[in-house]
Amino acid sequence: MDDYGLVLNAGSSSLKFCVFRRPRAEKWQIDARGQIDGIGTSPRFLAKDNDGKVLADDLSPGVRDGRSAVDALASWLSSKYGRSRVLGVGHRVVHGGTLYSQPTIITIKVLADLYQLVLLAPLHQPHNLAAIEAVFERLPDVPQVACFDTGFHQARPQVAGIIPLPMSICKSGLKRYGFHGLSYEYITSTLAEIAPEIARSRIIIAHLGSGASLCAVDGGKSVDTSMGFTALDGLCMGTRPGSMDPGAVLYMFQMLGMTAKEVETVLYKKSGLLGISGISNDMRKLLASTAPEARLAVDYFVYQAAKEIGALAAVLGGIDGLVFTAGIGENSPEIRKRICEASSWLGVELDNSANVSGGPRISTRHSKVSAWVVPTNEELMIARHTRALLGLVEPALTA
Known about the structure:
alpha/beta; 8-stranded mixed sheet; about 400 residues; 2 domains
């Protein structure tokens, strides 16, 4: 009977998971990974082993919400792994607030503290915490670890975290936290192997997906990032606006008579690429469309990304590398091409054939600033933290 650990990354419409298995007296290894997506609409359960072999691919009509998704996963795990011991469960939690920056063993008090942050991350936090509660109910004796998307940015210079409002207001926890930290932490941890020439240099990592942000990194440490107090800030995203004049929010309240809930819905679910195009929040559909509104949405996405890269390059005093990751960053040669061309003034010279083939290096050998494509792996980062915190690090790990 083997031991295994579980990593969960729960979202509003999907539950990603990764199973790490340790045969007795052997090393940890990835045994299975997958996701349940389309939760609440057209749920599908897909799991593969570490070699990509499909272990399960089923429609799951009974999956209505996050809790039932955890139930479906638990049933599958039970059928596959039988009575194997679960040694720990690691979770992605988007917001740790001022109290939590390091991976933390979850207690009832920790869970209650994290629920206080739901308003700061309404798209993510409730689902992260619902998965934790579901595991508590099913496996009450198994330790759980929360790993925070805000954690990687906590060592930034103080000036990078300031929101310039009265200090009496900011003392309540109003500051620029930054997000996508688990992704950035993973990328920085793997550069020594993939791109050693920039691993300890000044780089900008572009985490471009439905949620999108940039991070300025120097010597493997976060210096600044485009997201701030909430995950609404910075780049244009699938359904979120990114940086905008706060007066626009006042206008929605004062002139349009919108309620707080209506404004929240606009900002989190109806803006960004979807808001500009009126067509889709999916970059693939927008790139395939000939509609002028779709082209405008793509143009704005690239414009904002290039603009923010310039700002972070100024913070770093120049850059040595540009790294693309996440859904759009890893899979869209067209968006990478356009952003690199817009950043050519920094010294980025794109290798078109390398870009089309996906890299990892997509800049020419003569490029002053090298450009790369590096797939992210937040689940592996969570697993590393969970194993370390729970003391599950012997014997040596393979992942």
